[in-house]
Every structure is written in C-alpha cells, then in structure tokens.
Design brief:
single chain; 286 residues; alpha+beta; Double-stranded beta-helix; 7 helices; 23% helix
Length: 286
C-alpha cells in the first residue's frame, strides 16, 4: 500500500508515528489509507497537530459514529483552577482510576471502537499514556492458557473498578457519572475477535471481574495475571505527550492507562470516543 504520509513503526508489536499530513485537512482518499494503517498498527501518533476541539470532533467522526463527541480529561476546572488532590473530588478519583489498565466502555452495553485523544497542557514530568497490545498478548499465550480461557467470560463494571479504589459515585458529584448509570454489568468473553481484522485478542482490564464458574479469588487472580502478561515488552508502549499531539487508538485490541503525575501541575487532554459496532461490540446482560 502506497501511503501519502510517513509512517514510523514504534519499537513494539504495534503502533506508529505518522507525519507528513494535517488531520484537519485530510482528503477522503488519504483518510481511507490512514484508516487501513490504523487497523494495521492499532495506535497512530500524530505529533504537533494542535487541533481545535471542533477539528478533533470532525476528525473523530470520520471513523464512524461517536459514543460521545468530546470530554475533558483534566485536573483543571472550567474556571482554570486546579482540582484538589485530597480525596474529596470525584473527578480526581476517576482520573486516578484511569491509571489502571483498561479498555474504554467495556462496562457499557456496547464497547467503544476507539478514541481520538489530544494534549493541550501537559505536566513537566509524568502523565504519559500507556498502551498494551492485546492481540500480541493472546498470540504469546501458551496453549494451556488459551484452552483454559477459550470459553470464559467476565463481568465488567465501573462501579466495581472504582469501588476497589474506595470511590462510590454520588448524585451531585463533580463527575458527570458517565458509566455509573449502568447497573447490570455486561458479560464479555476473555477472548474476542476483532470485527474488521479477524484477529483474536484478550479482553480484560480493571473493569473485569467475577468470571462465572470460578471462585472470586481465582477469577481475580486470572484476570490480574492476564493483564500483567499483556503489559510486558514488546507488547507495551508509553507515549510522552507534547502539547498539540493527537492520538487515535483501537479500543477493540488495546488496553491503555494514564501514568501518575504531580497533580499540583495542570494536565488538560480531550477525548472523543468512537462508538462500537452495535452488533460486534454488544454484550448482553447475563
């Protein structure tokens, strides 16, 4: 495939840095090539794009319908003041929860397809975003483990994952409550097939728990072991942000997490979430 832009693969099993194009002025033909490149690499990094929020949403819409168009992922309030890191702010609690490995919206009836993420203000140190290749993780499993997990599923719940951190969302909270409105956790297989590439991958992370047929302790241990196995080189990459960077990742085959930073410093990111296919990414309640 001839590409009208430059692609430099990351030193990992996935991901690439893409240069030589402007996301805000991309032809349909060039986007079609970019989309195929995204399916190949699962993570594309675009340095120095400096998208406006409107341009970010317009770019995200080219991948399909959106689960939501734009959400700030930030420790800065709308008035510019910093949120206190004193265990009193639900937004900070959710930001800290996002520091655990996860896939977006596995706790919703339809899992997200992916996300476009941009950096506006970044701290001097820390605050990276890590990604883990769940395709390569599945490929690297031994046959005994593959056989063991082939027919297993796990529940996924934001209530569960945040409760492990001592966070119980309440009405009137500073956090919008997105994800907490789902009361009946969806049940998702530990091994999923990508609807466009056909590749198998692990589907675990911090929202997963309660594998039917296993004791709670055994279930938790298995999920933790699979997450730890997935997040090992060369299956992992952490992106060090610069203001103006944009990223698009495939949530159907990558886990991600935020890395800690000194929350006395501002970090302002914007997230556009791509809606999953309502058939391929649907998980019925048990």
């Amino acid at each position: 495939m001839t590409r009208p832009f430059d692609v430099e693969p990351l030193p990992a099993t996935f991901g690439a840095v893409v240069t030589g194009l402007r996301l805000a002025a991309l032809s349909d033909a060039d986007f079609a090539v970019l989309y195929e490149t995204w399916l190949d690499y699962a993570l594309l990094i675009f340095p120095g794009q400096h998208l406006t929020t409107q341009q970010q949403v317009a770019f995200a819409r080219r991948f399909g319908a959106l689960e939501f168009d734009l959400a700030p992922i930030s420790n800065v309030r709308a008035d510019g003041s910093l949120r206190a890191d004193d265990d009193s702010d639900d937004v900070i609690k959710v930001l800290k929860g996002n520091m655990g490995w996860h896939c977006d919206s596995t706790y919703m009836p339809v899992q997200a397809k992916g996300a476009v993420f941009t950096a506006h203000v970044v701290p001097a140190e820390g605050g990276e975003t890590g990604f883990a290749d769940m395709r390569a993780a599945y490929d690297a499993l031994d046959e005994a483990t593959r056989s063991r997990i082939a027919d297993l599923s796990a529940y996924h719940s934001l209530h569960y994952s945040q409760a492990k951190l001592g966070h119980q969302h309440s009405e009137g909270s500073a956090y919008s409550g997105y994800g907490f409105q789902v009361k009946d956790p969806p049940l998702r297989p530990l091994v999923k097939t990508h609807p466009e590439t056909g590749r198998k991958s692990l589907n675990v992370g911090r929202h997963a728990y309660g594998i039917p047929g296993l004791a709670p302790e055994e279930s938790e241990r298995l999920i933790e072991d699979l997450v730890a196995f997935a997040a090992q080189p060369p299956r992992v990459w952490h992106h060090h942000w610069s203001p103006g960077d944009a990223i698009v990742w495939d949530n159907r085959c990558l886990m991600h997490r935020a890395c800690p930073w000194d929350m006395r410093e501002p970090r302002v990111m914007y997230h556009s979430r791509l809606a999953g296919d309502p058939v391929a990414e649907f998980a019925a309640h048990a």
